[in-house]
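Input (structure):
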């Protein structure tokens, strides 16, 4: 039973059955405890427990049966209930040991298409390719740690997967690929359990996951900035792996020196090994990448050299844009039933992409500057803590445009706005999207700001 999945389904279902106030007061912070097919609803305090028993017990029981009729709803209890506290630590650790096996399967599931053979090498990424291959062949012996950095979409993730695939195919070493966001989430879970009966089990789980490996690969390390406890724990993890000659591979969208929010002791450790910058691909490399993408595509398409040259000239510096262009051409050819695409066909198929700015390299920083200027604010206002109506509205619009005009994740966007979390970015995007449906003046503002961004 996936407890988190069951909990999410339960909360989503109960939310439509009660008022928003009741949900936030009595249901938002509940949890569940499973013992085989027996299920207990856990409340954070005694008054919540009593209220749910007196007013919602039948509703809860009916909903649990609707979600899974194999479960036996036993009771509504508190965290300190003896039926939970008497659970043996050995049993908890056994459960966590099983979970850790699932964790490795989930996070070491490398994309088989991302190998060294499918990585197209040019002047901008030659050093990164060679260093990554050397590390894959002798993990822990050369370039430890290996620090890869560069803008989004330049092939860092491809190289990490290539390293993982190579090691798993040529050895029995244990490899863990993880994002910084997942590392922080795991750490938060451990701290939430601090002081509880099963905390020892969760500490064991955390340490096994990150220290009982031969190779640890962590992506987007820039998102560790500002989280003091996370930096401290990652430093401890780094030390443990390094002292035992285990390979550490780190990816970032910026150099070590530009990681301003990281503690000096961490940046010092990153400097112990090899730092490699991946630069944007030049024209010739983009042409070769396009040809490789066509060759390895699941769908067959035949593009002339002049179309390939056109794509290479208009796809920007993000390699992922190339896949979008090719997918668009394949779809256009199929929908329009064109036997052989001409250059004119390709221009027509891609005009929405090349003219709208959808795939132009609009950076978050540029969008922030344009939005701030439009509303007579500073970029610091958008990133800061001020919450007056004018600043908050401009901030929402900036979040929306960053999501619409770049391919950056909500996590990355939130981090660039004063280290806000991804939930804030999602809320802002959805709010502006909804407001635009009924506010023509807002729509005109968005269009005007987008135009100014594209002009820069």
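Output (sequence):
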């Amino acid at each position: 039973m996936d407890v988190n999945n069951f909990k999410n389904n339960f909360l989503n279902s109960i939310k439509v059955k009660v008022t928003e106030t009741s949900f936030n007061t009595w249901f938002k912070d509940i949890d569940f405890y499973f013992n085989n097919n027996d299920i207990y609803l856990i409340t954070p305090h005694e008054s919540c427990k009593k209220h749910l028993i007196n007013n919602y017990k039948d509703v809860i029981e009916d909903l649990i049966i609707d979600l899974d009729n194999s479960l036996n709803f036993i009771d509504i209890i508190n965290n300190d209930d003896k039926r939970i506290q008497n659970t043996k630590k050995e049993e908890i650790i056994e459960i966590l040991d099983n979970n850790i096996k699932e964790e490795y399967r989930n996070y070491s599931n490398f994309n088989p298409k991302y190998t060294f053979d499918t990585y197209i090498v040019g002047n901008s990424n030659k050093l990164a390719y060679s260093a990554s291959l050397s590390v894959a062949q002798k993990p822990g012996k050369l370039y430890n740690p290996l620090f890869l950095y560069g803008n989004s979409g330049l092939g860092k993730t491809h190289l990490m997967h290539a390293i993982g695939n190579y090691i798993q195919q040529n050895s029995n070493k244990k490899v863990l690929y993880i994002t910084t966001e997942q590392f922080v989430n795991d750490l938060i879970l451990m701290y939430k359990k601090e002081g509880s009966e099963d905390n020892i089990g969760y500490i064991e789980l955390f340490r096994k996951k990150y220290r009982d490996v031969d190779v640890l690969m962590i992506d987007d390390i820039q998102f560790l900035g500002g989280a003091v406890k996370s930096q401290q724990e990652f430093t401890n993890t780094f030390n443990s792996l390094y002292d035992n000659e285990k390979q550490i591979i780190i990816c970032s969208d910026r150099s070590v020196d530009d990681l301003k929010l990281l503690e000096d002791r961490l940046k010092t450790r990153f400097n112990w090994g090899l730092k490699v910058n991946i630069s944007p691909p030049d024209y010739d490399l983009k042409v070769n990448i396009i040809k490789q993408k066509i060759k390895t595509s699941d769908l067959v398409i035949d593009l002339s050299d002049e179309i390939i040259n056109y794509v290479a000239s208009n796809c920007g510096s993000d390699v992922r844009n190339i896949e979008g262009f090719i997918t668009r051409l394949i779809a256009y050819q199929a929908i329009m039933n064109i036997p052989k695409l001409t250059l004119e066909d390709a221009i027509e198929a891609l005009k929405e992409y090349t003219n709208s700015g959808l795939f132009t390299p609009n950076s978050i920083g540029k969008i922030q500057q344009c939005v701030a200027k439009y509303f007579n604010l500073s970029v610091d206002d958008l990133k800061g803590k001020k919450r007056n109506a004018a600043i908050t509205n401009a901030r929402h619009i900036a979040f929306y445009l960053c999501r619409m005009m770049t391919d950056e994740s909500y996590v990355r966007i939130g981090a660039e706005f004063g280290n806000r979390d991804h939930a804030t970015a999602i809320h802002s995007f959805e709010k502006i999207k909804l407001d635009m449906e009924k506010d023509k003046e807002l729509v005109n503002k968005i269009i005007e700001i987008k135009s100014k961004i594209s002009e820069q």
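Notes: The chain is about 60% helix and 10% strand. The two ends are 52 Å apart (CA to CA).
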